[in-house]
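fyi for ur records
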Amino acid sequence: MMIRCSIGTAKVLGLKKVRVDALPTTAYLMVGERCHFNCAFCAQARESSARADLLSRISWPKFQGESFLQGLVQPEAQTVLQRICFQVVQDKAALEDTKEWVKAVKSKTHLPICVSAGPRTLEEVKELLDLGVEHVSIALDAATSEIYDQSKDGSWMERFELLSESAKKFPGQMATHLIVGLGESEEEMARCLQAMYDMGINVALFAFTPIKGTRMEGLKPPKMSHYRRVQVAHDVIRTGLARADYFRFRDGQLTNFGISVDELQEKRGGEPFQTSGCTGCNRPYYNETPGEELYNYPLALTTKEVEDAWAYVREAKDKRGEG
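which gave:
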């Protein structure tokens, strides 16, 4: 059986010789091809004409299963990797194949495993967790049902309800993805983030990435200042420093986090701007082009990078000097 690995993962596993600026600390694996959904931003969408080996900006070459499993026990992989993450294209066959891959991986390594998939029922979530999966991620992607209707297939509310029910039944084991830049306001994203963390759902934050061959290929990625403010809101909410209820907004844009930006910078440094998600997930260049400014930093930020990131946040300080 074949499996796709992100190009950086292939490097860590000794399957490809490529130059990378930052090694992935999670092994990213893709199961299945061409989703039965037709999300407007996704290279794997039903009607997408993008390359079949793409997910976001990353290429995912195919490898023989045995070669992949042998790579997991190589010294570099054992040194670098902190987690295994399965990205599952949404169809029933891919989900069943993933269960077999989880069993195979667990026979080779004790690394924690997460699965980003499209389970349709609590029972399907339970089946994955019963195999020893640490987290199951059900991607909302969109912060509101209206944005979901414009960019994705299916029902936002159905997905939200399954996430909510799963979080109650399996506390601490559910996660989701949210994409910044699909048309939502910063207020809408902040309130969605608060709702997720109130339910104990971990969030991985992504920047919208236009991919050639998708229906949204002509749209622009989010402005860096917009993304930086959402990153800070996310960090403040997940660390419990403040709730979105105490944020201030003007025309949907964040102007105040309930704590001054100076105090937040002193307390949090570059943490808000590093890749979010499960522990050990750094997703190098998933949303970025090498050589350009990074939306999500895969490594600790330099002093200059920290200063530059917070400068974007300060762009929205309100006229009273609050922020």
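Residues 2-316 form a domain with the TIM Barrel fold (CATH 3.20.20.70). thats all i got for now
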